Description:
0% strand; globular
Amino acid sequence: xxxxxxxxxxxxxxxxxxxxxxxxxxxxxxxxxxxxxxxxxxxxxxxxxxxxxxxxxxxxxxxxxxxxxxxxxxxxxxxxxxxxxxxxxxxxxxxxxxxxxxxxxxxxxxxxxxxxxxxxxxxxxxxxxxxxxxxxxxxxxxxxxxxxxxxxxxxxxxxxxxxxxxxxxxxxxxxxxxxxxxxxxxxxxxxxxxxxxxxxxxxxxxxxxxxxxxxxxxxxxxxxxxxxxxxxxxxxxxxxxxxxxxxxxxxxxxxxxxxxxxxxxxxxxxxxxxxxxxxxxxxxxxxxxxxxxxxxxxxxxxxxxxxxxx
Length: 310
């Protein structure tokens, strides 16, 4: 299985290189190592950007992965296994969505924040978040509504009870992805120290909440609830801290509209008992068509209208 993954990735890389060559018309001349003159000023600038980012990453790991150590020690490997399965399904879907958003929308963001002033960077962040966050809202509704079908199709029948953890994982991943979008404001202003407080607050609260939840008889619901709460704290703190660095707006009207149009996905929830491979594929296919339709509206209809309003 691992060998197949490596081979597939290698083929995709070759195809991507060929597509890039066809588009640019420039031949590939091999890999080169750029020569950079290192001096105190350059090292000071790198350290000012990288060291706070490293600190924030530690707390980010605590928030997203630290629960594994606590749950295994305090609640046992069985609960950890169900959590890992459920959270893993939600994380896999989120990773695909986040990768597509970064590949499609991020290049334009980086181009604008690297060449414009504060106002231009703020507008770029507004436009970027206006496209990315609604896409994540649709994914949230889809994952919550289809948790049972996703679990029934992707994992062994003995793990079907992990579907409830997929629902919690959908919220954890949603808060994580939106926090990442908002953190782009700190990157645009080269102020990565802004990220430490939000991730520290979310990471420490998550670990503390998970520890207390493990001591309760209702640990199966309280442990993932603590993780969701920690993600929400990170999101709110991130929004507050980055607003001090640069101001950009989240289009609440567009978010409400996206959420409203995503509600029909919840009609698939009562079909959770149909978890055979055939029924799960059929239900996921039907819901997937509506999911794709909503993503089309966000990418090509609603965001353009919202930009015109801005």
